[in-house]
Amino acid sequence: MHLRRSIISTLAVTAALLRQEAAAQTVNLGSAEPFAVAAGSGITNTGATTITGDVGSFPTTSQTGFGSVTLNGVNHGGNSITQGAKIAMVNAYNDAAGRAANVVYSPAFDLGGLTLTSGVYNNPTSFGLTGMLTLDAGGKPNSIWIFQTGSTLVTASNSSIVLINGADGCRIFWKVGSSATLGTNSVFVGTILASTSITANTGATVNGRLLALNGAVTMDTNTIAAAICKELDSGTGTDAGTGTGGTSKLKIEEMKAALILAGKLVDVNSLPGLTSIYTQGFAQFDTEVFSVQQRFADLRQGARGFAAPAAYNDLPIGKSPIGKSPIGKSPIGGKSPLGGKDPMAVDNGIANEVQRADDDRLGFFITGTGDSITAGEGDQYEGTAIGINLGIDMRLSEHFVGGLTFGYSHSKGELVDDGKVEADGGKAALYGMYHRGGFYTEGLIGGGANHYDIERSAFLGTAHGSTNGQQFDSYLGVGYDIHHEGWTLTPMASLLYTVVGIDGYDDVGSLVPLTIESQSASSLRSRIGPRLAHSSQWGDTRITPSVSVQWQHEFLDDELPFDARFANDPSRLFTVHGPKVERDSVLVTAALHIAWKRYAGYLAYQADFGRDNYQSQSALIGLRASW
After folding, report:
1. 602 compared with 511, residue with greater pLDDT
2. Using an 8 Å Cβ cutoff, are 63 and 43 in contact?
3. Parallel/antiparallel/unpaired status of strands 461-480 and 487-502
4. Exposed/middle/buried for 493, CB within 10 Å: 0-12, 13-18, 19+?
5. Closest C-alpha among 433, 169, 175, 180 to residue 289
6. What DSSP letter does each residue of 328-359 carry, written as one string?
7. Which residue has the higher pLDDT, 350 or 623?
8. How far, in Å, CA of 18 to CA of 230, rounded?
9. Rounded distance, CA 47 to CA 572, Å?
10. Mean pLDDT, to the nearest integer, of 174-189?
11. Does residue 271 carry a pLDDT above 80?
12. Is residue 436 exposed (0-12), middle (13-18) or buried (19+ Cβ within 10 Å)?
């Protein structure tokens, strides 16, 4: 959602309230114009809904759930005014249906991603809207849009309509042959004239009208404003006003409600980008796991931690410390402690099992990390992070190594219209690996704390806020190393679970400030796939390039939620959602380890491919030492 465009469009709509010379509605709504919600078979509401404009229903006059409705208008029930409005709605419906189409789309067409100038757009079956539809007036204030569907109109969750270059919500009409459904947290603009019913799902915002000729209107925690489309009349009237041509028919209260709605539209539209707080936390744990996995691979290659390979003992490969081949014997004579197999037995010059050196139990590593993320349509969020991880581990037994890692990271996320989220965080975790023969299992559990500085585009200003947060991380992996002539093929599988939470805070700098709730989001992802590595010996140096390809699946939310309240309406909690992200992806990793004596260095790169609305990549450079 381009918030700058939203600001321009909402201000243009508000300015329309002051245009006494404005032209008449292209589709004449007649006496239905004051109505924000009108139905033929009743109105049902759930949750805290705000309606600016009149309401009514006829011939079924039932209204359910209006105890939680804030109405800035008149409830006409089924009286004569509503009955007259119903006749006007039929006339307007027929007017819109009778216009000749400029463009006819193929059946079941989705308008998402399009930019349309004024005109009449027709679909013989249905229109859908996924993502964003932009309506561009091109600087022509009298531009109109009429959308004609033979059957349904359905908008997806978090979809939106954006007005630019003078486009006016008062001049947009949707003639729907049967029923219309507005998705959760969608932002819709225009007057819907539906033959049967209209449903506005949780959190949908409407800058226009919901007019159902024969069916019901169903609402759930919505904001609906028809008054924002009213225009001043220079003729005489009963309402307060002092225009040069007479008094205004638009009440001051309605003007105020319209301005508040304009602010809410802009402020709500800025929130999905803040779900990047969660996305960045998940990605940074991916990078932490990536770093520790390089250490685990280092251990299994025999570089240090479990033992030192023969090359590190400055002895020819295959020779014992006392100069006699120990094949079938222990280094000091007798049977081998590994069941008759020489712990120095080699496969193409690379030791399959390595001599354990009791005096070299400790290992230390330091890793510099960097990662980048883009998420959402049109790169709604672009984030980068740099960090450092320190780790120390000890061989606790013949087959088990345990360690402790510490990390610091700084991330910066760029949101639309100059918004941003900056975070500094520290983490600590315990990790360990059990290894026997070719089989291994490895794991990590830890967490940390973060501090966030947040800026977001808001109504006539920039909203600022800062808060703290916490994170919990866990990782479990298993695999089996298959060795052959210097090559190692490792089928492997793993699970990663992350919880990222933030403390609540109040932002400042907007005319309609928000109270952000304390909240958290979780991610559970699985990975499965092979790793292929090849080790070669060059004197005292071992070189091991590797590559892995894994299928990754996300089990939890694919549209991360974010909760907030308007500071001037704290009783109403609403939820927006971040971009919908594909659950499945391909994780590709390439690494190079170079080990010599008691030291090793490594470079590694990891990228996440194939996820709609999400891309990430990470790079590592590290050094380790053992003693």
Report:
1. 602
2. yes
3. antiparallel
4. middle
5. 433
6. TS-TTSSS-TTTSS-TT-EETTEESS----TT
7. 623
8. 10
9. 9
10. 94
11. no
12. exposed
Sequence length of the chain is 627
Q: In this predicted model, what pLDDT tens digit does every residue of 195-245 receive, in sequence order?
A: 999 999 998 999 899 999 999 999 999 989 875 554 433 333 333 333 333
Q: Helices 252-270 and 3-16: crossing angle, nearest 10°?
A: 170
User: Token pair for residue 574?
Assistant: 């609403």
- In this predicted structure, the answer to whether residue 9 has a pLDDT above a threshold of 70 is no
DSSP string covering 287-329: HHHHHHHHHHHHHHTTSSSS---GGGGTS-TT--TTSS--TTS
Neighbour count for residue 178 (Cβ, 10 Å):
16
Paired tokens of 244: 């040069």
Residues near 74 by beta carbon (within 8 Å), at least 6 away in sequence: 34, 54, 55
Q: What is the pLDDT of residue 569?
A: 66
- The β-bridge partners of 501 are 470, 520
Cα(548)–Cα(533) distance, rounded to whole angstroms?
9
230-262: b or e for each residue (b if 16 or more CB lie within 10 Å)? bbbbeeeeeeebeeeeebbbbbeebbebbbbbb
Say which residues have a Cβ less than 8 Å from residue 494's Cβ, sequence separation at least 6: 475, 476, 477, 478, 526, 527, 528
Helices then strands (H, E): number in the chain?
Answer: 4, 40
257: alpha, beta or left? (left if phi > 0; alpha if psi -120 to 50):
alpha
Q: Is the pLDDT of residue 318 over 70?
A: no
Question: Hey, what amino acid is at 127?
Answer: F
Q: Cα(270)–Cα(257) distance, rounded to whole angstroms?
A: 20
Alpha carbons 168 and 471: distance in angstroms, whole number = 45
What's the rounded Cα separation, in Å, for the pair 349 and 591?
22
Question: What span, in angstroms and rounded, lies between the C-alpha atoms of 465 and 474?
Answer: 30
The model carries a pTM of 0.57
Rounded CA-CA distance 470/507 in Å is 20
pLDDT at 580: 80
pLDDT at 269: 67
Q: How far apart are CA 433 and CA 407, in angstroms?
A: 20
Query: What pLDDT was estimated at residue 249?
Result: 43
For the cut 80, the answer to whether the pLDDT of residue 71 exceeds it is: yes
- What would the mean pLDDT of 98-102 be, rounded to a whole number? 91
pLDDT at 214: 95
